[in-house]
Design brief:
alpha+beta; FAD/NAD(P)-binding domain; D-Amino Acid Oxidase, Chain A, domain 2; 2 domains; eight-stranded mixed sheet; six-stranded mixed sheet; 12 helices; binds flavin-adenine dinucleotide; FAD-dep_OxRdtase; FAD dependent oxidoreductase domain-containing protein; FAD/NAD-bd_sf; DHP_3-monooxygenase
């Protein structure tokens, strides 16, 4: 932790998921005092929470700098060194490779494992579980922010006063809504069936041996299989698991409550299994069929925001940039948001908070805006949906030219290898 030269700043962070915890690490390293308010009643435990995600090289370095045990992240994740796109011929049930990038330097993590590593590396008093954010107010001179939350256990209303309120409350952020009441999420046109197939109790089952024969680079490869107007993504996670996601075009479902995950009935699962038979190779269908408790995410993003700072309130993570998952960006952007914010606060000090927040916004907005739009485009290409420059001729992986297929690759993500100058010293 840095010895702060002047006054020590205090930040109230709303949301204790990946963005909130990353930000807590970065701010503590910058010499700030931090409290994180999270409405979930206790830290998520075990692999029942969430599924898989891919960490880019910069996010890996930042996490390592916070965890302070260099090997711990590598031990908890698997490499993703290959990004491969292939087309599945639904009639013949065979795959053909479209692109293969062997210089992909991501790692595959279980959401709950990443969350737990970040959480356990924080001082214990930082996160207040079971505290729902209610409201905030900014002092007339704009130097203090007062935050009200409710303890779910006692019902008490608690007031925290700080220099900065950080909204890490996810893509449905209520804090963002207070500034942008008309800002809407954009339904992508498709939902994603997701699941984690656990083969730890039988590593030699016909199902897993068949899958590994059909997809021999599992364990180091991010596989994308494209059908006509649909695609699936799958990769291996630590502890003998396969993470899979299957995107299906459909009208926007009605969401109940404050979540983008839908409840699914046995009938819906049965229909999904039958549809998988028609589209994917049998080795993949078997894994989908044998996955316990698949779930359905409704996929949204939103038009990029041109500001993410209002006085001493700042947005980070999905609150700042709801995005579709095709570029593997939301977690990576969130981690970098936290790191950049921490460095800006350290550089300018609490006395110059407006300058710190201006630099944060100036550094992040152009990058996240392009990444959100690129992810959107990637999703629309892979789902065979209309694109601005090819309205009548959506992408068809069966007949696409090599040049068209090149667009499918993750390495084309804008700013993917950029390291913001403000954090260069941190990770070299
Ligand atoms: C339980 C869970 C599992 C996930 N699993 C995966 C996964 O497997 N793969 C993947 O790619 N992404 C997953 N995500 C999403 C992923 O974490 C984000 O897309 C990305 O990392 C950005 O994170 P975020 O912290 O900005 O937003 P989120 O992860 O959405 O977190 C927002 C947090 O804010 C809290 N919150 C919201 N409103 C309030 C309030 N009023 N008061 C207090 N707290 C509030 C929420 O409870 C939540 O913890 C998961 C998210 C959660 C919450």
């Amino acid at each position: 932790m840095k010895e702060s030269k002047g006054k020590k700043g205090k930040a109230v962070v709303v949301g204790g998921s990946i963005a909130g915890l990353s930000c807590a690490h970065a701010l503590i390293a910058a010499g700030w005092q931090v409290v994180v308010l999270e409405k979930t009643s206790s830290p998520p435990t075990g692999c029942a929470t969430g599924a898989g995600l891919g960490l880019d090289p910069l996010a890996q370095k930042l996490i390592n700098s916070w965890l302070k045990e260099p090997q711990i992240l590598d031990c908890a994740t698997l490499p993703l060194t290959i990004d491969q796109n292939q087309v599945t011929d639904g009639n013949k049930k065979i795959n053909r490779m479209l692109t293969r990038d062997e210089n992909f330097n991501f790692r595959a993590a279980y959401w709950s494992v990443l969350h737990s590593l970040l959480y356990k590396a924080l001082p214990p008093e930082i996160v207040r579980w079971g505290h729902t954010f209610l409201s905030y107010s900014v002092s007339d001179d704009k130097t203090r922010v007062s935050v009200k939350s409710k303890s779910l256990q006692t019902g008490d209303i608690i007031d925290d006063v700080g220099d900065l309120l950080i909204a890490a409350d996810g893509c449905l952020s209520s804090i963002r809504r207070s500034f942008l009441p008309d800002h809407k999420l954009r339904y992508s046109g498709y939902c994603a069936w997701r699941g984690v197939f656990n083969f730890s109790d039988d590593e030699n089952s016909e199902t897993i041996l068949g899958l590994k024969k059909a997809f021999p680079d599992l364990g180091k490869c991010l596989y994308f299989d494209l059908g006509l107007g649909t695609h699936t993504v799958f990769y291996e996670l630590m502890n003998k698991r396969i993470n899979w996601i299957w995107y299906v075009n459909q009208p926007e479902p009605q969401l109940k409550g404050n979540s983008v995950t839908m409840k699914v009935s046995p009938d819906m699962i049965e229909e999904m299994h039958a549809a998988a038979e028609r589209v994917w190779v049998p080795e993949l269908v078997k894994v989908i069929r044998e996955t316990k408790e698949p779930f359905l995410n409704v996929i949204y993003d939103s038009e990029p925001l041109d500001r993410i700072v209002w006085d001493n309130v700042v947005l980070i993570g999905d609150a700042a940039h709801p995005t579709t998952p095709h570029g593997l960006r939301s977690t990576n952007m969130s981690i970098l948001d936290g790191a950049v914010l921490g460095k800006c606060l350290e550089k300018w000090g609490v006395e110059n908070l407006p300058s710190a927040l201006e630099e944060y916004e100036f550094t992040r907005v152009p990058v996240v805006s392009e990444q959100v739009l690129f992810s959107r485009r990637l999703g629309r290409i892979k789902q065979g949906l209309a694109l601005p420059n090819r309205v009548d001729q959506p992408f068809d992986p069966i007949i696409a030219s090599q040049e068209e297929c090149e667009e499918l690759q993750q390495k084309n993500m804008p700013f993917l290898l950029d390291i913001p100058s403000i954090i260069l010293g941190e990770i070299i």
